[in-house]
Each structure stands twice: as C-alpha cells, then as structure tokens.
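Example 3.2
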Amino acid sequence: MKSRKGFTLVEIMVAVTITIMVVGAVASVMMTINRSVHGLSESIDLNIRTRVLQERIAFDVRNLMSIDEPPTSQSFKGTVIDYATGASYTIIYALNNGCLTRSLNGGAPVTVMSGLVTDTNASKYSIFRFGDRIGVTTAAETTDKDKVTAIRFDLVPAATTLQRLGLTNTVNAPFCSALFQLRNRQSSSS
C-alpha cells in the first residue's frame, strides 16, 4: 500500500465548516458592536443637540423683555434684548409637524429639533407651559401674557427617534425638560 500525502475530502469539509462557523461568529460579534457604537453615537449626538438647544432657549427666555402675544402650548412669541449689543429682536418658538422651530424678527422658521411628537391628540406630546409667581401652571395654556414669569418646555421624542436609538421599550416620555424663570420681565401692555 502506498502512502498518500494530503487531506481527505472529509477532513477538508470539516475544516471548511469549522472555519465558516468561526468567521460567522466573529462577523456577528463585529456587526453587534458596530450597531451598538452607531446607536451610542446617535444617542450622544441627540444629547449634545439637546444641550445646545436648552442653552439657546435659556438665553432667549432669560432675556425676554415681554411676551408679545398670548402664549399657547405649541408656541410663544416675545421680545428679547441682547445685552451685549443693546439690540432687541422678536423671537418665535413653535412646535408643529414633528419639529421645534425658531424664527427671528419675522424671518423664516428654522428647525432647531426634529423627531418630536407635536400632535396634541397624542397621549404624550411636546409642550410649552407658562407660569406666574405661584409656579408653572398645570394647564397647557395661560392666556394672560402679562402674568407669565416662567416657561417650561417638555420635548417628547417620536417613536421613530426612539427606535433609531434602540429605545423601543421606553415609554414616550420627555427626553428634554427644562424650567426657565424670566429675569427681565416687563409688561407688554401700555
């Protein structure tokens, strides 16, 4: 009997099968890590955008001189003073079509946050609340613009935003909520 060098077909098939299983397991782990990093990256991005938004709203609200129209749960308009330049400007924040928009001096609204629940028929939705000296009202709207001394906002993410972040089991609760006292409040009535 001759001695043959090499592998049998069975040995090659077993080696290929084991190699495929190892490569598949490594690829699966790498894909899971990639998804986690991507989800974490989006979550961090949302967190940063939310902090910048809070700072922008805080600057505007704290420098409000007057609220120019009766505020609603979905918008408010006021006059803001920039103490660095002494200039004043009109600002409007509005919640509609899944977005929070901001406009200056009657200009076109600019979207500052998207992916929000703004439908007031939803069980939880993004909202502005306005308060007086007693505190922030529990009602969504305060029509007496001259008594507003505090503004609270709650931003509720849409289901698609939660899914993108991998938070599908999370109750639709505000991911950004802040209360601001108006420091420079002046009555807008003459």
